[in-house]
Design brief:
The strands form five sheets. Strands 13, 15, 16, 17, 18, 19, 20, 21, 22, 25, 27 and 28 form a twelve-stranded mixed sheet that branches. Strands 4-5-10-7-9-8 form a six-stranded mixed β-barrel. A four-stranded antiparallel sheet has the order 2-11-1-12. The longest helix has 40 residues. By secondary structure, the chain is of the alpha+beta class. Helix 2 packs antiparallel against helix 8 and helix 2 packs across helix 10. A hairpin with a 2-residue loop joins strand 8 and strand 9. It is built from 23 helices and 28 strands. The protein is globular and about 105 Å long. It is 49% helix and 18% strand.
């Protein structure tokens, strides 16, 4: 027994001694070949960092982290029924408080439109949430600066606010202390009392500012919609209590129990965001980069191992077993992977912060800010282990099969290992194929981003701002067009930086048709389903800068009879063989009460790269573009009404849009317009932004630029790694065939013959990789349909261009060792053997 223990102890000491010896050999070898070591570690570090950062994105999507006390106990409360308001909010809240699962409740109401927020000369437009004073205590949220609300703030009259870290960075970019500063929200000043961290809000919430209801409101009447259930309450108990509440509410409201119910849903549940095709493309891209890096380094390790075949054969001849050789090569791969893991984690920390600061709000549905967690760390370690296996195990097994007797007998540099080069050349083919798939996807996204960046709607859009006003529901109100438009425009034109202004609203065609008088004098009714036209003021075309190509512009003042200006698309559709100017048109069916109006001018057709970019198609309402609903084969129709034109509004909202052209500072114009509308329409929703933002150009540019940058980085890295793989395999082939090439040169081979011989081997691999890549591309680009133009998934020209680019890079990578081969000294190459 004692002898056995001594034997085991001796074996352990021997294993440690051997491991130390192997480690010293590995470190000595890496120190001697610094270029190889640097390339290997950087390649692995970049691949691991990309995978870990993107996993952080997916982890944040599936497992959102929130800085709240027991987030699983927080529920959203929704109440259905009692649509006539027979039961007030105080009664509803008392009903919730009477349940056995109740612990606390609060109110959270996010405004539907962004608010204009200013501090000094800095400003932003973001969403504001009106909350009860106890919201943050119910959530268990702690601010990173200052404090949150207390009950005394509601009655104190100071109307304080809490802001997010993002808004703090916008309004106080130079590190100014935000606590105590007075910011202006829609023209009203509020003192800042606290700053909330990024994880202290509901996942998916876009609010950046929180304030309390006006102090003249009764807290008891604020609707309760956030409930914290007590610890230990089971779902069956909650469902039974909600069923009882539903029956009580139905009895109090006098409505059917079928239409009345209370519902609780988790506010921070896992899986509330779902991965889509874009996320699969993202994961596929980073995994492809990892595989390319691993295949590349496996090739280099294999080439390096075969280059060291004499050394390994000598060690085998001196008694080293195959296991010792595999252990040595695996240990070297583990050292490389460990260094790559450390570098990858450092780059991940940097990349996470960089990505978090670059994610635009327009892409928040696709990419959530990456988070660091134990899952991310475990993932990085698993990736590192995969790298060790891929980079070290396969090459180690391949090299360890070498027969030392044959190696020592045959020598090196004869080109005898052509079969082995073919085997590990397959990995280069795969990495080139993956690189082409990434390049094609990146090319499509980049081209779409460039197309959106270069969009030109047909007029000078930069100085323009758009403001949509949606009034409270009106009852039996007659609104004369001249009255409301003159009132609004006189206010807007009084602003100091306004050079020109116009107002317009949209009106549907009567009975979804238009009627014209054809050249023969007959009335022709043309169906126009879901079509609309813009009711404008006389300054509309001049404010937007739309050029009149035929006829004239609207004249200043109110016309005696209505007038119409159409664009060239409408003129061609309605009067294909005659001049539209002077023609009569009725914006409705023949039997409708719409008046006959005369066309006085034709303007150029606005460039349409999508309905969201065409301002003639409709204003922004509730954050969605109305325009696409009205797209027909007709283009834009601008209608200037006479003095009798009016609109009857009964039980619904009235909306219109203002467009203003700034003289000097268009960036501040949206806030100036928003503040000007509040005194005129105190209870209205006002959405104000630059015209580029209103048409979706700004959001489209931001989202496509971000995606193009992301996939561009992936593609550039994949291209560089593929080039390195070609270079490595060709350089190794040159070193392996050094004696053969020396003999050829001695027998009279020219530099062109040598270069052609070397390039043929590299080109064959590159062409095989191109074929594999083109096959993979057809599936890759389908995942990026949300960020590519329609039809790009079949763009053969683009795919061929990407294949040509990679083939050219592969040729250049192979050319470097080929040129070196022409400088081989035949005497030295033969003497060295």
């Amino acid at each position: 027994m004692e002898n056995r223990r001594r034997t085991r102890a001796t074996d352990r000491r021997r294993a440690v001694t051997v491991a130390r010896h192997h480690l010293r050999l590995a470190v000595r070898g890496f120190t001697r070949h610094r270029t190889f070591t640097t390339v290997a570690v950087l390649s692995l570090a970049l691949a691991i960092a990309l995978n870990t950062t993107m996993y952080g994105v997916i982890d944040a999507l599936v497992n959102p982290v929130v800085d709240m006390r027991a987030p699983e106990q927080i529920r959203f409360l929704r109440i259905f029924g009692d649509y006539h308001g027979h039961v007030d909010n105080a009664t509803r809240t008392s009903m919730i408080r009477s349940t056995p699962f109740y612990e606390a409740a609060a109110s959270y109401q996010q405004a539907p439109f962004p608010a204009a927020i200013e501090y000094g000369r800095r400003f932003d437009q973001t969403r504001v949430a009106v909350v009860s004073p106890n919201l943050f205590s119910v959530l268990g949220v702690h601010p990173v600066l200052g404090r949150t609300f207390v009950d005394a703030d509601f009655t104190g009259g100071s109307e304080p606010v809490v802001v997010s870290e993002r808004l703090r960075g916008t309004l106080f970019p130079r590190g100014e202390p935000p606590i105590g500063a007075n910011i202006t929200i829609d023209g009203v000043k509020h003192p800042v009392i606290g700053v909330l961290g990024r994880a202290s809000t509901f996942p998916g919430s876009s609010a950046d500012c929180w304030l309390m209801p006006e102090s003249n409101a009764a807290l008891a009447q604020i609707p309760t919609n956030i409930v914290r259930i007590r610890a230990g309450a089971n779902e069956a108990e909650i469902e039974r209590a909600l069923a009882v509440l539903s029956r009580r509410l139905a009895a109090l409201s006098g409505e059917s129990i079928k239409d009345t119910r209370f519902a609780l849903t988790s506010a921070v549940s896992r899986g509330q965001f779902h991965a889509g095709p874009f996320h699969y493309a993202l994961v596929g891209a980073v995994v492809a980069v990892l595989l390319i890096a691993c295949a590349n380094l496996a090739n280099l390790q294999l080439a390096r191992g075969i280059g060291r075949s004499r050394e390994l054969a000598l060690r085998a001849a001196l008694g080293a077993s195959r296991r010792d050789i595999i252990s040595q090569l695996l240990l070297e791969s583990a050292v490389l992977a460990g260094a790559g893991l450390i570098g990858g984690l450092i780059l991940t920390y940097w990349g996470t912060g960089f990505l978090r600061s670059r994610i635009p709000p327009s892409i928040a549905d696709y990419v959530i800010a990456p988070q660091t967690s134990w899952r991310v760390l475990v993932f990085s370690v698993i990736v590192c282990m995969v790298c060790v296996v891929l980079v070290g195990l396969l090459p180690a097994i391949r090299v360890s099969r070498v027969d030392p007797n044959e190696l020592l007998k045959a020598g090196a540099g004869t080109g005898a290992n052509r079969g082995s080069r073919r085997q590990y050349g397959i990995m280069v083919v795969v990495e080139i194929g993956l690189s082409i798939a990434l390049l094609s996807g990146a090319g499509i996204v980049v081209r779409t981003a460039l197309r959106i960046r270069a969009v030109n709607p047909g007029y000078d859009i930069a100085p323009l701002s758009s403001t949509t006003v949606l009034t409270e529901p009106l009852r039996d109100t007659v609104l004369r067009t001249g009255d409301w438009s003159n009132r609004v425009l006189s206010t807007v034109r009084s602003l100091p930086d306004v050079a020109a202004a116009t107002a317009f609203r949209y009106r549907s065609m009567d009975h979804n048709a238009v009627t014209i008088i054809d050249p023969s004098g007959a009335s022709v009714e043309i169906p126009a389903p879901m079509a609309s036209y813009a009711v404008v003021t006389p300054s509309y075309l001049r404010t937007l800068g739309l050029p009149v190509v035929h006829g004239r512009d609207f004249r200043a003042g109110v016309p005696l009879t209505p007038e119409v200006v159409v664009d060239q698309a409408t003129a061609h559709a309605l009067w294909p063989n005659s001049n539209a100017v002077g023609s009569l048109i009725k914006l409705g069916e023949f039997a409708s009460r719409a008046p006959w109006v005369r066309v006085v001018g034709v303007v150029g057709t606005l460039e349409d790269l999508g309905a969201e970019l065409n301002p003639a198609q409709g204003p922004l309402l509730y954050g969605t573009q109305v325009g696409p609903l009205f797209r027909t084969r007709l283009g834009a129709i601008y209608y200037l009404p006479d003095a009798s034109d009016s609109t009857v509004v009964s039980g619904r909202r009235f909306s219109f849009t203002i467009v203003a052209r700034a003289k000097h500072d268009p960036a501040r114009m949206p806030i100036a317009l928003k503040n000007a509308m509040h005194p005129l329409f105190p209870s209205a929703f006002v959405l104000s932004s630059s015209m580029e933002a209103a048409l979706g150009i700004t959001a489209g540019r931001a989202s496509h630029d971000f995606v193009a940058m992301t996939f561009g980085v992936f593609a550039a890295l994949a291209l560089a790694l593929a080039a390195l793989g070609i270079y490595g395999i060709v350089a190794h082939a040159v070193a392996e065939r050094k004696r053969e090439l020396g003999v050829r040169i001695a027998l009279g081979a020219t530099a062109r013959n040598i270069i052609g011989t070397i390039l043929r081997e590299g080109n064959a691999i590159a062409l095989a990789g191109v074929a594999v890549g083109l096959y993979l591309t057809k599936d890759t680009v389908m995942w990026l349909h949300a960020f590519s133009a329609e039809g790009d998934e079949h763009d053969v020209v683009l795919f061929a261009a990407m294949a040509a680019v990679l083939f050219l890079v592969a040729v250049l990578a192979a050319l470097i060792p080929a040129l070196r081969a022409t400088r081989i000294d035949p005497v030295e190459s033969l003497r060295s053997e």
